[in-house]
TrEMBL record:
Catalytic activity: IMP + L-aspartate + GTP = N(6)-(1,2-dicarboxyethyl)-AMP + GDP + phosphate + 2 H(+)
Family from the record: Belongs to the adenylosuccinate synthetase family.
Listed pathway(s): Purine metabolism; AMP biosynthesis via de novo pathway; AMP from IMP: step 1/2
Catalytic residue list: 12 (proton acceptor), 40 (proton donor), 139
Residues reported to bind GTP: 11-17, 39-41, 293, 319-321, 391-393
Cofactor stoichiometry and binding remark: Binds 1 Mg(2+) ion per subunit.
Subunit structure: Homodimer.
Record protein name field: Adenylosuccinate synthetase
SUPFAM superfamilies: P-loop containing nucleoside triphosphate hydrolases
Residues that, per the record, bind substrate: 287-293
Organism of this sequence: Fervidobacterium thailandense
Positions that bind Mg(2+): 12, 39
């Protein structure tokens, strides 16, 4: 059995925690897209991990991790993550595998990320500045550096020289050094594997694909151009993994409210003290950049859209405990423009102008409260998809089935 866990919103839905919880039933957790822009926080009873590149497998269980072709890898970030795991006594060798077709994020990708943002001015995306866009752009321009390029010194030297020339000519970025990357590669080389070898060794393994970001940040179906540069919806699974694969279950994760880091329209956003309350009680600060997350009410037109384009089979709700004690919660149920109802518009100008129809539902004291059950049933009936599990707190085991 294979499954995918992915975000139904603009990221940070709690995918890492849910992936860790469910990973015990699989042989591998597989990352298929994104890079170190992802920040997946996993709270174990005694310690906390923030995964940027290492898949969120339960470190206490017999489950392994594979970083597949679709991921862009910052070798320094990966090395630090591996070191942190090992410092906690967690076994990583023979447990983490990285495809040699992965592209490498290079130091000047981060410089270029900043430069592009600054040139865009008021149209900046608000990226994580982790060099993700430039790394995927190099891949598309066919000048990217892949892990397999490190295997032959002559080919590597040629390639590095070519990349330095390309960056100087096209982007006016000079004084490029690869020393750090070469040094970090030495450390991670023992984890690198050809995808064919991985397939051969683990043909019958059950795979849990771990999404990064969320459907609304997908480069094709998200709120373009305020998106990331990869296919983070479910359609990215096969492309990123690099082999045809049957995904038996598509499990979408969503928060009981909504957050967004970075720019772009956000129809149900709460401003001022209202937004601040959600940010404070929900601890809504980026796991990668520490930036305050923009907060707002749950938006059902966006959720319906995300379910439709991802083919979501079932949903898991997180962070409803954050709303415990609120007198009421609001849910955006429809958009309206000039009095006419509409579903999620692709035109971002329209999305930024829509008015939202809200329903106000009674709050709940705790997650056993019948008002909370009413909230879940309301969402299910509005979006036509079942909520199979409720995450009740940040720790891995804080979760109940419905
Ligand atoms: P991800 O990127 O989707 O993995 O999510 P992040 O880790 O960036 O952000 C989710 C945050 O919420 C993390 O700090 C989690 O520990 C925390 N979290 C996850 N599920 C719950 C939940 O049900 N309740 C509460 N209070 N916190 C949660
Ligand atoms: P996880 O996996 C939330 C956002 C950035 C920015 C846009 C583009 O933890 O949910 P990028 O650096 O990718 O070019 O930035 O995407 N973004 C995320 N927002 N969670 C993430 O990952 C994100 N990864 C990227 O804030 O708006
Ligand atoms: Mg995150």
């Amino acid at each position: 059995m294979n499954a995918v866990i992915f975000g139904l919103q603009w990221g940070d839905e709690g995918k890492g925690k849910i992936t860790t919880k469910l990973s015990r039933d699989f042989d591998f957790v597989v990352r298929y897209s994104g890079g170190s822009n992802a920040g997946h926080t996993v709270e174990y009873p005694d310690f906390k991990l923030i995964h940027h590149l290492v898949p969120s497998f339960d470190v206490r269980a017999n489950v392994k991790g594979y970083i597949s072709n679709g991921v862009v890898v910052d070798l320094g970030v990966l090395k630090r993550e591996i070191e942190e795991l090992m410092s906690k006594g967690i076994e990583v060798e023979n447990r983490l595998f990285i495809s040699n077709l992965c592209h490498v994020v290079l130091p000047f990708h981060k410089l270029l990320d900043e430069k592009l943002e600054s040139v865009k001015g008021s149209k900046a995306v608000g990226t994580t500045k982790r060099g993700i866009g430039p790394s995927y752009a190099d891949k598309a321009h066919r000048v990217g550096l892949r892990l397999c390029d490190f295997e032959n010194e002559i080919i590597l030297d040629e390639k590095l020289e070519f990349i330095a020339m390309f960056y100087e000519s096209v982007y006016d970025i000079s004084d490029i050094s690869f020393d750090e990357v070469l040094h970090d590669y030495q450390y991670i080389s023992k984890f690198v594997i050809s995808p064919i070898q991985f397939r051969k060794d683990y043909r019958d393994a059950s795979l849990l694909f771990e999404g990064t970001q969320g459907v609304l940040l997908d480069v094709d179906v998200g709120t373009y151009p305020y998106v990331t540069s990869s296919y983070c919806s479910t359609s990215g699974v096969e492309a990123g993994f690099g082999f045809p694969v049957t995904v038996d279950k598509k499990i979408g994760v969503f928060k009981a409210y909504l957050t967004r880091v970075g720019e772009g329209p956000f129809p149900t956003e709460l401003y001022g003290s209202e937004g601040e309350v959600l940010r404070r009680v929900g601890g809504e600060y980026g796991a990668t950049t520490g930036r305050p997350r923009r907060c707002g009410w749950l938006d059902l037109p966006l959720l319906r859209y995300a379910i439709e384009v991802s083919g979501c089979d079932e949903m898991i709700i997180t962070k409803a405990d954050v709303l415990s004690g609120f007198e009421y919660v609001k849910v955006g149920v429809n958009y309206r423009l000039a009095g006419r109802k509409l579903e999620m518009p692709y035109n971002l100008q329209v999305l930024s102008e829509v008015e939202v129809d809200y329903v106000k539902l009674p709050g709940w004291k705790n997650l056993e409260d019948s008002n909370f059950d009413g909230f879940l049933k309301f969402i299910e009936s509005e979006v036509g998809c079942k909520i199979t599990m409720v995450s009740t707190g940040p720790r891995v085991d804080d979760i109940v089935e419905r």
